[in-house]
Amino acid sequence: MKVLILGGDGYLGFSLAQYLKARNCFVIGVDNLSRRSFVKKFGGKPLTGDAPIFMKKNSFDEFYHGNYRHHVEGLLTLHEDLDAIVHFAEQPSAPFSMGSKENAAETIHNNVVNTMYLLWGMRDFAPNAHLIKLGTMGEYGTPPIPIPEGFLSLEPWGLDDEKLPFPKQPGSIYHATKVMDSVLIEMLCRLWGFRATDIMQGVVYGVALDENKDDSNLWTRFDYDDVFGTALNRFVAQSLIEYPLTVYGKGGQTRGFLDIRDSMECIWLALNNPPKEGEYRVFNQFAYTHSISRLANVVKSTAKEFGLDVRIKRIRNPRLEAEEHFYQVATDNLRNLGYSPRKLKSGVKFLFERLIGLKQEVNPEAILPRINWRRDEDVQETELVGEKKVQSLR
Fold first, then answer.
1. What is the CA radius of gyration of the chain?
2. Which CATH number is correct for 2-392, 3.40.50.720, 3.30.450.90, 3.40.190.170, 3.40.640.10?
3. SS3 of 336, please?
4. How far apart are CA 258 and CA 286, in angstroms?
5. What is d(CA 122, CA 73) in angstroms, rounded to the nearest whole number?
6. Is residue 133 annotated as part of the catalytic site, yes or no?
7. pLDDT digits 0-9 by tens, 275-303
8. The one catalytic residue among 64, 68, 140, 174
9. Rounded to whole angstroms, how far apart are CA atoms 98 and 108?
């Protein structure tokens, strides 16, 4: 199988390259290294996965440094026998997209405009390649009804075989760009006969695969800062330095989570079970749903097993989101293909085993929130619930 990975230097792209190479695939990577510059702009530095790109290139059969928009036609012409394109080349941070009008515009241009160039290139040079686009469960928002896999059945209206895309309620500029991507891809599957899998992925955690767990040079990046780090990454980094786990607001926000090893397995299942010509399908991809409070408690109990004593502190939520809500999501498509998810506790322990020796590298100044999504408050005035300023956490 020949696979082109857009975003090959990124969190998932670098791991996927190794995963596919171990399964005898021919892997081509493209990346403009923008993730590195975005994180650096906000003073962040990943604990792992920041090796020079010349070292990472060894995980690919071919690697191209640059914006894929400028290379896509040449790449697709050069590799006419391409089986699949995995699209990971997007700005991945909701906080970044909400930080300024410049960040918002950059997110829209990078994610939507560049995706349009890809789709046009596919039309002219690779119409039969299977497109796997990384979406996000955040496209759906948190509606008060069960979330299906992409489509709403019209059976209640007497149209048994008809369906429409499920309404989306993105909560940030970043999530809105993902919705725009989905709209474009679904439309062009209908108009141009593309075959596409839109993966609505939950929050991924972990740095290592089973194949590379003992070689830190092959681990992917672990960002834990307030802009590019996920809640679980932040909690793990805080635990390593015995810093309070900062839960935003009530902690009732519920999301889907999955181990990076599960993410790779799910993409492999999608690659080996492609849709038919003209089909746009959606996979909701995660293992289990957990509230942020439960997430913090799992990290806290796991940290204790490693001799780390941490406590949990709730701080005012810098985001605009429902903190307690209904959340019921269908995940049948991947499970029907054989996906068997890992449990959160074992995955968090696997992560601690990899990172415990790096605790001296954690920078506590990069963890607390700096971007406030509200219009009428300064993020620096964020307070601990029932206590004083967030700067007094230590």
1. 20
2. 3.40.50.720
3. helix
4. 5
5. 8
6. no
7. 999 999 999 999 999 999 999 999 999 99
8. 174
9. 11
